[in-house]
Amino acid sequence: AQSVSQHNHHVILSEAASLELGCNYSYGGTVNLFWYVQYPGQHLQLLLKYFSGDPLVKGIKGFEAEFIKSKFSFNLRKPSVQWSDTAEYFCAVTPTDSWGKLQFGAGTQVVVTP
Amino acid sequence: EPEVTQTPSHQVTQMGQEVILRCVPISNHLYFYWYRQILGQKVEFLVSFYNNEISEKSEIFDDQFSVERPDGSNFTLKIRSTKLEDSAMYFCASTRLANTGELFFGEGSRLTVL
User: Which chain B residue has its CA at the smallest distance from A93's CA?
Assistant: First the structure.
């Protein structure tokens, strides 16, 4: 069965700390990979995406993610977080022939303390 | 910045009643979607819509659900006879090009079925 797993449900860290959120997927074919973010009171928005090519992708606000095909993983990282990074982060995949049919992970609530 | 808008933000209804959730996608977008998130669960794909017809639907999207683009701006989700388990946050999304993988989400409509 297809699935997307996020390792942490809730992360609390201090400003300037490094952040890494894990995401693993199980899917029987080629996929596109995404991280979406939802800031408090706002809508889901795209943080970054991977389709093909360089497995290290950079997104907005200093975030990056690395696709490791052998591990079926797409982990999100930021070297130094800010208070404004407090949000819920969602990993998502789509099959390459069904772009809008996102399958989401459960989300990770990240709280950055000043 | 253009955005996807959804109304109502919150609706409370009695079981068995019909509900229509409305969405105004970004004006030059061509692909439209509904997702939902039951409290404590993952965001789930419901349906995609393009060129005035359903492109793809999930198992959740049974005969009780329908979508429509009644004019050039609105995109609606109708639930004919609501059940308790339809209580969820419903998200509308749109995109101009399906193969960018970037969906633009609304802030959601919370449906509570009593």
Answer: B101
